[in-house]
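Notes, p. 3: input format for complexes.
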Amino acid sequence: MLSQISRRTLLLGSGAGASLLLAGCGSATAKPLSTAGSVDFSNQLNIPPLATSTVQTDGTRVFELTAEAGNSTFLPETSTPTWGYNGSFLGPTLRAQRNEKVRVEIQNGLPSPTTVHWHGMHIPAIYDGGAHQVIEPGDGAEPEWIIDQPAATLWYHPHVHGTSEEQMTRGLTGMFLIDEETTDPGLPSEYGIDDIPLIVQDRSFAKDGSFKLTPDATAGLLGDTMLINGSVNPYLNVSTQAVRLRILNAATARVFNFGLSDNRSFAVVGSDGGLLQAPANVERLLLSPGERAEIVVRLSPGEEVVLQSHPQELGMSNALTTRVGGNDTLDLLKLRAGSNLTASPELPDVLAAESSFEMDKAMITRGFILKDMYINGKLMGMSRIDLSVGAQTVETWNISNTDNLAHNFHVHGAQFRILDIDNRAPQPEFTGWKDTVFLPVRATARIQVKFGKYKDAVTPYMYHCHFIRHADMGMMGQYTII
Ligand code: C2O
Ligand code: CU
Ligand code: CU
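Output follows (482 residues plus copper (II) ion):
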């Protein structure tokens, strides 16, 4: 593994920008995809099961998670080799309360080393499941921490440096929901009924039914078949007037521009790290890989409306836009409202107290330039700590994408607020806690990051582009909290 990484790194180091740019254009020409209107929505949406847990006498909630290989059926009469947690594809939804102590007993039943990273979680670096917490086949790990952050839709996935995209594509992805009863504003919250997780992904299939695992281009793997919670062409029967969708862009390269088929507006109520201060009504919602949003859609009895993804202007060449799905029009999920709908309360005007977004003054400002697969001219160095921050401090990070390719930027172990993008205040739906920010070509985002309290001078957290192939290629750095 290590020699593989260093060889890749060497290749990148000497080949430098030119070859990467070439790879970005690719040899095969990608074509825009349009499935709008041609999807039959014949499959009931799969809902990932809630993970079972036991509570020990000291109050610790214990989950068991085994990464394993299996087979799944996505296409008629076709079996696809897949990986999953406690099953053959994806993983159960873990759910815990704020202030609860949790432990996850992980077993690696795969033929490859893996890690389990808790994306968006405030967690000690040794338990973060980043590139350094590799679990060998047959081994296990037992991360244990106290949930200490607001209610949010987080997720988990592998993070082995160099093979993250491949492992995620095989199926290793799940959600982790944090609840907080004391601050609950009364949103739809019955899991699988009116509170629905949506793990949105794309895949391509080879003739033998296996997933395509090798990308055509630097942008990463772009699939022509959409999977939502592992379902192809799914519908969801809705029995309530309002339904909350917790959307996770779990694709590795595709940007989704979500909208509803009749262009009605919907309310965004949460971002990566928790609820917004107030609902934001939008008709379109752009999520790049790794980002989440919680939305609430209201329905009338008997109606049907389709969650879609629409073309979007990403400021880059048409060919590169196509490479991240930016020219595609996709039917994703049909919402079918029943003829009698259980009443849902109106959305509250206030979802979270203003004080929950308060930050100390940032004392330090740092700059990050994203270009080719480099961050500040460097590829990921497993044994290099790029920077150290003070525990519980706030810093301003200026992140500039000077590339001709879109990127995004994700920080482990912390949540941040977007101050501005190209000197403009973020749209209301992006004003809440974030851990991943999208960076169109030549965009600069200023973010304020609030770092955690777990000091560890030795074990780093990562920050990286979440077009995860870019991270695999080295677009990643490491920081410690001291
Ligand atoms: Cu989704 Cu490094 O993370
Ligand atoms: Cu992460
Ligand atoms: Cu990138």
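Residues 117, 119, 157, 159, 290, 410, 412, 462, 464, 466 surround CU-O-CU linkage (ligand 1) (CB under 6 Å).
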